[in-house]
Amino acid sequence: MLSAKNFATKCLCFEMLCLLLLGVALGACASSDADNSRDALYGIRTVSFDKNGGDTEAVPASITLYPPATTLDSLPAEPTRAGHRFAGWNTEKDGSGSPFTASSPVTSPILTIVYAQWELPLGLHLPRETLCFSPMTSSEYGERFTVTVSGFKNAADASKATLEAHAAAGNEPLWFSWQVEQGPYAEGSQTFVFSFAYHGTHFSEGPATLSIQLKDIPPGYAYSGESRTLHITTADGQQARTILVHQDNIERFNAYASTDSGLRLHYQLIENVTLPKAAEGTSNWTAIGNSGSNNQHLFTGSLDGGGHSIFGLAIHEPSADEQGMFGCIGPNAELKNLRLEGVNVRGHEAVGGVLGRNAGGVVHSCHVSGKVQGFSRVGGVVGWNAPGLVRDSHSTSSVEGERDLGGVVGRTYDRVQDCSSSGKVKGDNNVGGVVGMSFWDSTVQGSHSTGSVEGLDNVGGVVGQNGKVVENCYATGKVSGQYSVGGVVGLNLDIGHVNKSHATGDVSGKNAVGGVVGQNDNVVENSYATGNVSGSSDVGGLVGWSIGDVKNSYATGNVSGDYTAGGLVGNNGGLLQNSYATGNVIGLEYVGGLVGFNGSMLRNCVALNPRVLLKTDIALGRVAGQNDGNLLNNYARSDMDIRFYVNSDGSGGTEKPFGGSGGEDGIHALATEYGGMSFWLQKLVTGPSNNIVWNFDLVWEWKAGGLPILRGVGGVQNPTVP
Fold first, then answer.
1. Which of 122, 123, 141, 125 is nearest to 133 (CA)?
2. Quick one: pLDDT at residue 499?
3. Cβ distance 633 to 623 under 8 Å?
4. Which top CATH class is 45-118?
5. What is the pTM of this model?
6. Residues 281, 286, 291: CA angle, nearest 5 degrees
7. Among 2, 111, 175, 267, fewest CB within 10 Å belongs to which?
């Protein structure tokens, strides 16, 4: 058993041990305080680098400064953190303090703690580096392009960011504009949507380049600051599919469209434009495009006038070819919906209000007023169309020159459709109200002229000289010339075909003068004339001189001439059939109700002329004045007034007795006969199988109380027996 004494001794020992341990501890504290006091006393400072959530420590994790140093020589190696970017040191853990760098003064005695700052990296992504515009003509923001920025923690942070874009150096002025809006946010990515629009008010070359950069980056995110480049072109590889043209840039358009770059672009007139007034004999415009060397400078783009007008275009280049608003256009070019008001264009060859020469393009829905002049291939709208299409275009301008002159087109080797002219056309050779010369595979269809046409040779109300097809055309103006003068066509060549056409104006000339065609070398059919025709020789109400076919046609105008004058054909050396005439005929020699002289075939025709008069006694007949060919089944009205030796005014003279049934005087036809449809159906039948007939199903139709009229031929048809 432990005695009381022993217990007391042991307790004393335990107390002494506790006092000893307490003393050691107090000694250690006193030593630490002494060290700190010593560091403070001697100016020693320590900077501790807290990794603040990083995966690795800074190396070294702390740096001690010894007097007299107050800044670090360098910072430690940066700590790392997965998925983050080290953004420096800060005196506060949450980054709200001051940034700490090697040059930051360490002023805190003994110990300074700085904290690593971390950022999330942001990425700027373009789906592609090139934006190719689709064709657009409006100013609406219809072309869109989406850019994505990745790396956001939440939508709230993403909403603070913006994108900025600007044109790269050398790209201004731009031909487009843009706006940018934030798009949807999803899974750390924010989209930005660019909307582009053409404004088309500048003429710049080459594709454009935009520089896109991220701005307004929220705290806690890192971005390299690097921009992204977007190249912008159009679907055809050029910078502007449609460039808008207006009053303010019309002169720049004229200059730029003539450059190598501008020749292939597309333009749209968006308002009426008035050009600076040009003194007489000067120009305010330079023709755009020319054939140059090997057609290297053709305009191959387009201009849409939008129905707007350009006023006062003036060109004075009397020795230059290919003159007009456009000089020469090539394949795929298009000029449309354009009005040129008050033009004054003067050139040499290939001269037109809109276009000098069309070498493969299309001109349509254009209108020209004013004056166009040149030497040859001169037209109110287009000078020379070879090859190409001119349609739905109209001219009220006067056209003057020497040869190949037309109210719409001077010369064409291709198509002219649904065009018209009301201006005066005046020249020498191949002069037409719509087309001066139509040749090779050309067609002139659905076109008309209401203005006067004057010339010397090959003068026509619609076409001066026709080498292929004239169809569904008409003229109402006066036509005058000397040789080969016609109400529709002056000279119809040996491959020419005039069909379903008519003329109502008076026609006058010297030789080969006709109400529809002056000289016919091929085919004239399904046509009629109502104007009066006068000339010297080979004068006809329908055709003046013919070695081709004339059929299914009629003439109602009066005919007067000196030699070979006929109600239908003056001098017939071809086939004339299924036709009739109702006008008076008067002449000096070789005068007939249908033909003055027949050297070939005349059949199934009817002379309904009230009077056929001869000033001499040389060759007069109800049907043919002189026949050296074949006359078959032709009729003449029984009450025709037919006389020799009449005075110039048709008075006096001696009545010619009826020569018999058939021959030059034809077969008697009573009014009670030809006034009914059965006469035309039953009596006008010839051929070996009675197959040459008047076709009232496809060609003719009967007009009650009148005479047969032509199906599918325009104009007012109201023929009656005078």
1. 141
2. 98
3. no
4. mainly beta
5. 0.75
6. 120
7. 2
Classified by CATH at the fold level, domain 123-234 comes out as Immunoglobulin-like (2.60.40)
Whether the Cβ atoms of residue 531 and residue 538 lie closer than 8 Å to each other: no
| Positions of CATH 2.60.40 in the chain | 45-118, 123-234
| CATH node for 408-531 | 2.160.20.110
- Please state, in angstroms and rounded to a whole number, the distance separating the CA atoms of residues 174 and 548: 63
Classify residue 635 by burial, with Cβ atoms within 10 Å: 0-12, 13-18, 19+: buried
Strand partners, 417: 391, 445
HSE of 217 in the Cβ direction (CA atoms, 13 Å)? 20
Quick check: 255 and 267 in contact, CB under 8 A?
Answer: no
Spatial CA neighbour of 587 closest among 566, 608, 556, 557: 566
Residue type, 107: T
DSSP-H helix ranges across 588-665: none
Beta bridge partners of 522: none
3-state SS record for 180-249 = EEEEEEECCEEEEEEEEEECCCCCCCCCEEEEEEEECCCCCEECCCCCEEEEEEECCCCCCCCEEECHHH
**CA atoms in the 13 A half-sphere facing the CB of 568:** 36
Stretch among 110-124, 166-180, 299-313, 605-619 having the lowest mean pLDDT:
166-180
Percent of the chain with pLDDT over 70: 89
Report the alpha-carbon distance of residue 225 to residue 250 in Å, rounded: 42
Query: CA 246, CA 428: separation in Å to the nearest integer?
Result: 39
- Token pair for residue 265? 């672009």
The 10 Å Cβ neighbour count of residue 186 is 11
Higher pLDDT, 416 or 209: 416
pLDDT digits (tens, 9 = 90+) for 612-659: 999 999 999 999 999 999 999 999 999 999 999 999 999 999 999 887
Q: How far is the C-alpha of 383 from the C-alpha of 372, rounded, in Å?
A: 10
Is 60 exceeded by the pLDDT of residue 31? no
